[in-house]
Amino acid sequence: MKTQSIEYRDGDVTLRGFLAFDDQMAEKRPGVLVMPEAFGLGTHAKKCAARLAALGYVALAGDPYGNGLEVRDLQEAIKLATALRADPAKFRQRARAALDKLATLPQVDSDQLAAIGYCMGGSFVLELARDGAPLKGVVSFHGALETQRPAVTGQVKAKVLVCHGAEDPFVPPAQVTAFAEEMTKAGVDWQLISYGGTVHSFTNPEAGSLNTPGLAYNRLSDERSWKAMRMFFDEIFQRV
Description:
single chain; alpha/beta; Rossmann fold
């Protein structure tokens, strides 16, 4: 497997992502964009990209802030994420820049694209779907579901899978209900799996290190959601 840093741009912002793929495979294959949590492009997203590469995908973990910035402090992460999300168009474009880069890679079948995201990354990929990006599917893991620009009937090309912690204090039941109504009204092929006894950041083994209520790793929900994603990919990419 080959992994490397990869540079791309969003306007005048230089972004540095993380690319993973099996360099022993000659044929083109589906590409999967991985958008990380609000802390920036770190170990969690990179490991997920490597796992996807081992499954036969080309995976690009995107850079949300520029220059590969990663922060450790929760309040700083919230500040950066809030500023980035303030302009919905710019927020969507930041993810689209990564997707466009992925689609141009020689190993990638540009007609076979998907995107997954964690926490803020989940919001990124849902916004890509709402924006009509050329994706077969998107998967949000413990991502926020609210939006300033709801999906429009006929615009969403991607199928949607949301993996959600039923006890997530940052994504309350009202937000989940509103999301379901939005997707249904727009005619989207969507599904939502709610994991009992599970809070925010349930896929990240380091979530508990922040000592923040509502953030905790859940091994079983992590494993179940990864399996759900794999089945979803088998469907959208028609893999036998």
